[in-house]
Amino acid sequence: MRERRDGREHVFNTIDPPRTALLVIDMQNTFVAPGAVLEVPLARGIVGNINRLSARLRALGAPVVWVRSTFTRNGPGSFSVYFDNFAPGVDGESIRANLYEGSVGHAFWHELDRHDDDLVIDKNRFSAFVEGASILDKKLREQNIQSLVVTGTLTNICCESTLRDAMMLGYQCILIEDANAAQTDHEHLAALENIARVFGDVITTDDFLKTLTHG
Q1: Region 151-179 average pLDDT
Q2: pTM above 0.90, yes or no
Q3: Around 207, how many Cα atoms within 13 Å sit in the side-chain half-sphere?
Q4: CATH class entry, domain 3-214
Q5: Of 19, 21, 56, 17, which Cα lies nearest the Cα of 150?
Q6: Extents of the domains making up the chain
């Protein structure tokens, strides 16, 4: 990998904070709370790193964007191709109902350091950049955002899907390996390998924060 990058460990060695956005994906009760229908136990362990990243990037003028899964019973927001085929029956409806607007499962995990002036974006697909899934791309382009720092859950589903599409739309993407979580280490590491190969940089929270200090 380093050979393909002319000896560089990372593709994007520096970023311009005002043109960078931190994306926090799906850190909602449905995924983070103990016993939740789609609980990702490891997601609770990344909250501290997400809060560290959001505090530092805010201080440098970078917007913090909280992206959340939001579904409807009918219409385009129902994501029927997924719920009817990959999570059919009672389980599928239970998952979708837990991500209806206003439900307990839809709310963000209470330990996250969210600010009133942060941006909140609802999406109805795994990737926030699929046409019609959200207004994320529009909002980022309005702020002249060039680089994305991706955190959240699940690493190998919504985070990876969103980052892949973002890269192909022209964004410089960085995934924070210890601020993303999947159901298993195997799934997490496989996603990191996919991303690092062709879609973006993969870096730890500590190393990324050092680039902000010394870059």
Answers
A1: 98
A2: yes
A3: 14
A4: alpha beta
A5: 21
A6: 3-214
